[in-house]
Structure formats: C-alpha cells, structure tokens
Design brief:
Helix content is about 55%, strand content about 25%. The protein is α+β, with helices and mostly antiparallel strands and about 290 residues long. The protein has 2 domains: about 120 residues; about 130 residues, Immunoglobulin-like (Sandwich). The protein has a 4-stranded antiparallel beta sheet with strand order 2-1-3-8, with no helix packed on it. A 4-stranded antiparallel beta sheet has the order 7-4-9-10, with no helix packed on it. It is built from 1 helix and 10 strands, in the order H-E-E-E-E-E-E-E-E-E-E.
Length: about 290
C-alpha cells in the first residue's frame, strides 16, 4: 500500500506550530536574555550587597571582637574590682576587728582610769590623813619629849634619891706646935701639918641600904692627887682610873653617917688653892676648896 503525502493544511499546521515554537523559543530566549540581564544586575547588586554585608560583617566582627575584648577587659577589671573589694572587705573586717579590740581596750582603759581616779581620790585622802597624822605625830613627839624630859628628871631625881648624898663638908687644919698648944684653922700653908675633913652622908626612902666605898682625894694647886694610893678606882662619869688619897668602907642602913678623914702633911705645903673631892662608889658627890696663903 502506498503512503499518503501530507496535505497543505497539515503542512500549514505544522508550520504554524513550528513558528509558534520558534516564537516561543525566541520569546524564551529574549526573556532569558532579559532575565539574564536582570540577574546580572541583581547579581551585581547582590554582590555589592554581599560586599557591603561582608564589610558590615567584618565591621561587626571587629566590633564584636572589640566588644569581646572590652567585655574581657571589663571582666578582668570586674575581677580586679572584686578582688580589691574582697581585699577591702577583709581590710574592713580587720579594721572592724581592730576597732573592736581597740574599743575593748578603751573600755578597759576607761575602767582603769576610773579605778585610778578612785585610787587618786583615796591617795589624796590618805595624804590628808598622813598630813593629819604627821601633825598629830609632831604634837605627840612634842608631848613625848616633854614627858621624856620630865621622866628623865624624875629618873634622875629617883636615881639621885637612891644614891647617898654628901653634905656639911668641912676642912679643919691643924698646926702642931709641939711644946705649945696646937692651933686650928690655920691658913698659912707652911704651918699646916694636918687636915681633918668631915662630912655627913645620908639618903631618903628610895636609897638602897648596903655597903658603900667612899674615896677622898686632896688635889694640890696643880690638880695632882696628893699622897696617891697604889690602887685606883674608876670615875663613873668618865670611866677614868685615878688613885685616891684615902678610902673607907661603910655600911649604910638608912641612917645618916658621919665621916672623918685625917690627912697628915709630912712636907710643907705650898700656897694656893687645894681641892677636896668626895666620891661614893666612883660617883663624885661633893667638892670643897681650901685656900692656903
């Protein structure tokens, strides 16, 4: 069977279809070209915007890094501030502790000051009391001195009363005329052959009875003991050991005793003042002067 050839209509239709396809392709190409141009513009714009975005991103990144650095610095500073703050807190706590300790010390010192003020007041009172006591002591000392003096006088009086007293001492001189009668109360030194010393001894109610030793010393004008003994006795006032001219032992029984000492002058006496000294138990009781011409 033979094949049928296309008709004109068919060809026309195909041509129209092909023309339409060509037109569509051409329109698509035009649209693509136009679209490509827009895309290029948009790409350029996008690239520009991308560049701007990148620049902004870099700027933001730099700012971010700067902010992070600043934040790190701020954190570091904050840490330092916190450290300083903690140090200040510790210092403050130490200062508070120190202040509390000082406050306690101040309280203790205040109490001590109050005690010292009280002690000062007591000391002033004691000083005043001491002054009053000193005045009283001085007054008492004055009274004691007066009483002591009176007591000493009384003691001396009692002591003197206890001892024997010598009174009525007399010296009788005699001139031995051999063939003629003796003469007494001779005042011429070369004529005095003998001196008789008499006196009385007595006491009072306080005088203690007992044995006494009576010493009689006759001293020449030069103060030398005449006719000295080999033995000596001690003078109670000066503790001096001296010889004696004559000595007698007596027993006092509460009654007055009459004493008599006879002193012979084998050699001629020299003119001058002679002293008679009477001692009882070493205590000087009485003296008497005799003047010979």
């Amino acid at each position: 069977m033979e094949k049928k050839r296309p008709t004109n209509e068919t060809m026309r239709t195909i041509s129209i279809v092909l023309g339409v396809l060509l037109l569509l392709v051409l329109a698509g190409m035009i649209f693509y070209i136009l679209k490509s141009g827009r895309l290029a513009d948009e790409k350029s714009t996008l690239q520009t915007e991308n560049q701007t975005i990148q620049n902004n991103y870099q700027q933001v990144t730099a700012e971010k890094e700067q902010v992070e650095q600043e934040l790190a610095d701020a954190r570091e500073e904050m840490n330092q501030m916190q450290t300083r703050y903690e140090e200040q807190l510790r210092n403050r706590d130490m200062q508070v502790s120190g202040l509390r300790a000082r406050t306690n010390e101040i309280l203790v010192l205040q109490n001590r000051i109050e005690e010292l003020e009280q002690m000062q007041a007591e000391y002033e009172n004691l000083q005043q009391l001491h002054t009053d006591l000193l005045v009283q002591h001085e007054e008492l000392e004055g009274q004691i001195e007066i009483i002591t003096e009176r007591f000493q006088v009384l003691q001396d009086s009692v002591a003197a009363s206890r001892g024997l007293r010598v009174y009525n001492i007399r010296a009788l001189t005699r001139w031995d005329r051999w063939l003629w009668a003796d003469r007494y109360n001779v005042s011429l030194a070369k004529r005095v052959d003998e001196t008789v010393v008499t006196f009385e001894m007595g006491g009072d109610l306080f005088t203690i009875p007992g044995n006494r030793t009576v010493y009689l010393n006759l001293e020449d004008p030069l103060g030398i003991v005449m006719y000295p003994s080999v033995e000596t006795f001690e003078i109670s006032e000066s503790s001096e050991l001296v010889p004696y001219t004559q000595m007698q032992e007596v027993n006092y029984k509460g009654e007055p005793i009459a004493m008599e000492f006879t002193i012979e002058h084998p050699e001629r006496l020299e003119p001058g003042t002679y002293n008679i000294r009477v001692y009882i138990d070493g205590e000087l009781k009485r003296t008497r002067e005799i003047v010979f011409e």
